[in-house]
Specification:
Distance between the termini: 60 Å
Order of helices and strands: EHEHEHEEHEEHEHHEHHHHH
Structural class: alpha/beta
Helix content: 40-55%
Shape: globular
Strand content: 15-25%
Number of strands: 9
């Protein structure tokens, strides 16, 4: 069977790290496991210590999550690579399903599957909206849940590592880079992972910054920002940051205005499609 390496970037996630580690080491499949910790000041190291000999733990200052992931990948040797954040978990049977698919499909570069958003107690909040791969659709919405994706090492050799300059959407940019570059993505309808969703996460706790970075990344990657992401940024600004009520017509008007403004900022213009969409929102 193919060899597998998993990298966990970690920083001050002592309350979750044991569940993350157990979900990796409890798969019943040989795995090279590296936890790259960014010099946590909580009790992460104490929680990891009992696993000495079963994983490789490095704790040192880094330049953030992506830097830790890239350093971890650099010290691993497995033919297949997984990336599991220190508050997420794999589901039982995930490694077996992924490795069997890679074994049966040597042309496949990337495998991803289904996932859940889970709460701090591992309870399922909702299924992650995963879909079979379509690069055009991926530009409109990120339907790949990061911990539920695995890739061959040859992917790194051909397309490089995740962009260390990105703080929030490094995974999304990487999927787009691979897809646009011609990597073959295979979707398997198997629940592979749980992605932690709680107010302290970067995705949920800093939504406006997340959407601003996604728009800039889209402009750099595609040469334009899809209308949907422009509107998502306006929603984040007005509803999440300013607390405006979505049911009010004045909120709809402001979202329309700020979506158009976002288009002018990132796209240097407004497409006919976006004009039609905004008019439909306003009932014109």
């Amino acid at each position: 069977m193919l060899t597998l390496s998993v990298v966990t970037p970690s920083f001050n996630q002592g309350r979750f790290i044991v569940r993350t580690i157990e979900s990796v080491l409890g798969q019943g499949v040989p795995v090279e496991y590296v936890v790259m910790d960014g010099d946590s000041c909580d009790d992460t190291a104490d929680h990891v210590k009992p696993y000495e000999g079963r994983l490789h733990f490095v704790s040192q200052r880094d330049k953030g999550q992506t830097d830790a992931v890239n350093k971890g990948i650099a010290v691993t040797t497995g033919e297949v690579i997984g990336w599991l954040n220190s508050d997420d978990v794999y589901y039982p049977g995930a490694f077996q399903a992924v490795l069997e698919h890679f074994e049966a499909n040597p042309e496949c570069d990337v495998v991803y599957g289904m996932a859940d958003h889970i709460d701090v107690n591992d309870g399922v909040i909702e299924p992650y909206p995963s879909e079979p791969f379509d690069i055009d659709r991926l530009e409109e919405t990120c339907f790949i849940c990061q911990p539920a994706l695995f890739f061959r090492r040859r992917v790194v050799a051909r397309w490089g590592l995740p962009d260390v300059n990105l703080r929030y959407c490094m995974d999304y940019e990487y999927w787009l880079r691979l897809g646009l570059g011609g990597a073959r993505f295979d979707y398997i309808p198997v629940k592979l992972a749980g992605s932690r969703f709680y107010p302290d996460t970067k995705t949920l706790g800093q939504r406006l910054q997340v959407h601003a970075e996604i728009n800039s990344m889209m402009a750099d990657t595609l040469g334009y920002v899809p209308d949907r992401w422009l509107a998502n940024w306006a929603h984040a600004l007005l509803r999440d940051s300013w607390g405006l009520k979505p049911e009010r017509k004045s909120t709809t008007a402001l979202i329309s205005l700020f979506t158009l403004g976002a288009s002018l900022w990132w796209n240097k213009g407004v497409s006919r499609t976006l004009w039609r969409t905004v008019r439909s929102w306003m009932g014109w």
